Amino acid sequence: MQCQYVNGVLAVDGVPLEDVAARFGTPCFVYSRAAIEARFRAYDAAFGTRAHRVCYAVKANDNLSIVRVLERLGAGFDIVSGGELERVLATGAAASDVVFSGVGKTAAEIARAVAAGVGCLNVESAAELARIADAAAAANRPAPIAIRVNPDIDAGTHPYISTGLKENKFGVPLDEARRLYREAHASRWLEPRGVACHIGSQLTSIAPVVDAVREVVALAEELDAAGIALEHIDVGGGLGIRYQDEQPPAIGTLVEALLAVVPARYTVVMEPGRSIVGESGVLLTRVEYLKAAAARNFVIVDAAMNDLLRPALYDAWHEVRPCREPAADAVTLDCDVVGPVCESGDFLARGRRLAVVPGDLLAVMSAGAYGFAMASNYNARPRPPEVLIEAEGARLVRAREQVGELMRDELARLRDD
Ligand code: LLP
User: Fold this and answer.
1) What is the pLDDT of residue 280?
2) Which residue's C-alpha comes closest to atom 22 of ligand 1?
3) Measured between alpha carbons, how far is 213 from 209 in angstroms, rounded to an integer?
4) Whether residues 181 and 255 fall in one domain
5) pLDDT at position 81
6) Which atom of ligand 1 approaches the CA of 238 most closely?
7) Same domain (yes/no): 198, 182
8) Are 232 and 291 in a shared domain?
9) Which of 88, 136, 202, 294 shows its CA 20 to 30 Å from the CA of 157?
């Protein structure tokens, strides 16, 4: 994303963030269509002539316009709920381009996915496989499946977003996967199409991913020899981005390393989320107060943990930039940037040096992934609007929630009122 100071004013793809704030208010998420497109194209191009499908992980940012941008570019989609399936279908995407992941698919979600004709269900347990077979039989339509293998490999990331260790709830061990493939092969309602793995998110080294993919490829080859021919290897998502000083590999470097261990006769499916939208978005927020407490200076802003949960939940670091470049001699403050929510965990950034006064606009960087998607209404706070910067300028792609909407489906009267 082009996010730089132009004549002292921070602009995304040439649009001053001050103008965005003036039009749509704060807090507000701002995304760059060009950046999202460039990241998707980088994935697509990295595969060259190799058969592949880049399935954007919708959970990272499920705004319909963003899903639509990716659909236009020919993306597939990785989903984890019936809600995400409906969002993807609402943009005109084909169900056959959808991969359905997740450990807790309900019977209703599976039935809907089978009826819609999703491209593949990534299975995470024996019980789920049985449910899928039942749903397929009921719909009289065999279901395409892949087993998600848990390779017991440490991805070296935050424990909350690590998924490939045997103590994690995700996937099944290799031995169980072998058994499930035999079972699926024997069922007339299940069609084994591929094998999947995903060992974690915000990954900054390639080796653990390559090791995991090597294992699932070996399984696919073994199954092939046993007469169960798979078409695709789903290598998951997880490529990290730069929030602070991380050095994640380039998209091309990761894809090249993966292609080197997957035989060319398999289609490679990939499920990136964060690395497509993360650096393509910022959260705009305005400074309400400066508060000098005994031990700390607080910059109190109008965005909070309900808007961007990552700092509170993972102690994640997001860069904070003033939207107007401070004068060289401006007084800087050692400070924590905090929201109005009634929790000490409600911070967006801690231990920063900023030159700010009330009324200033700040941009919280790299907020395009798992930002709005994880936002809540805690403290009865309406969720922020989302704005997409396109060649023609800024456009509202989701309106700010209104308090009235939050109360619409509740009862304010008792039986005896
Ligand atoms: N595929 C599967 C099966 C996944 O579970 C995930 C993410 C992805 C793909 C996409 O991973 P990505 O490319 O975005 O890293 N809320 C956390 C991240 C949770 C990731 C969950 N699974 C955060 O804010 O860091």
Assistant:
1) 98
2) 201
3) 6
4) yes
5) 98
6) 15
7) yes
8) no
9) 88
Based on the fold, state whether residues 351 and 206 are members of the same structural domain.
Answer: no
**Is 342 among the residues known to form the active site?**
yes
Whether residue 253 is found in the same domain as residue 321: no
Query: Looking at the structure, do residues 201 and 260 belong to the same domain, yes or no?
Result: yes
Bridge pairing between strands 52-57 and 28-32? unpaired
CB neighbourhood size of 24 (10 A):
21
From 62, 201, 203, 275, the mutation candidate for ligand 1 (largest count of ligand atoms within 8 A of CB) is: 201
The residue among 227, 242, 270 that closes a domain is: 270
Which residue has a Cα nearest atom 19 of ligand 1? 161
**Smallest Cα–Cα separation from 16: which of 301, 361, 356, 326?**
361
Exactly one of 197, 323, 335, 342 is catalytic; which is it? Answer: 342
Say if strands 98-100 and 76-79 run parallel, antiparallel, or are unpaired: parallel
Reported confidence tier of residue 157, pLDDT bands at 50, 70, 90: confident
Is 236 touching ligand 1 by the criterion CB < 6 Å? yes
Our answer on whether the CB atom of 273 is closer than 6 Å to any ligand 1 atom is: yes
Mutate to test the pocket of ligand 1, among 203, 274, 317, 370 (most ligand atoms within 8 A of CB): 274
Give the chain's mean pLDDT.
97
Residue 224 in contact with residue 211, Cβ under 8 Å? no
Total Cβ atoms within 10 A of residue 15:
18
Looking at ligand 1, which atom is closest to the CA of residue 275? 13
Range of the domain at 297: 3-30+278-406
205 with 303, same domain? no
Cβ of 34 closer than 6 Å to ligand 1, yes or no, is no
End residue of a domain, out of 249, 270, 291: 270
CATH code, domain carrying 198: 3.20.20.10
Give the single-character DSSP code of 271: -
Q: Are 67 and 86 contacting, i.e. CB atoms less than 8 angstroms apart?
A: no
Does a structural domain hold residue 286? yes
DSSP H helical ranges for 74-118: 82-90, 107-116
pLDDT bin (cut points 50, 70, 90) of residue 368 is very high
Residues 325 and 222 in one domain: no
Residue 198 falls inside a structural domain: yes
Domain count, the chain: 2
> pLDDT by residue (tens digit) across 305-363?
999 999 999 999 999 999 999 999 999 999 999 999 999 999 999 999 999 999 999 99
Name the CA radius of gyration of the chain, rounded.
23
- Ligand 1 centroid to residue 173 C-alpha, Å: 20
CA 100 to centroid of ligand 1, rounded, Å: 14
Instruction: Kindly state if the Cβ of 39 falls inside 6 Å of ligand 1.
Output: no
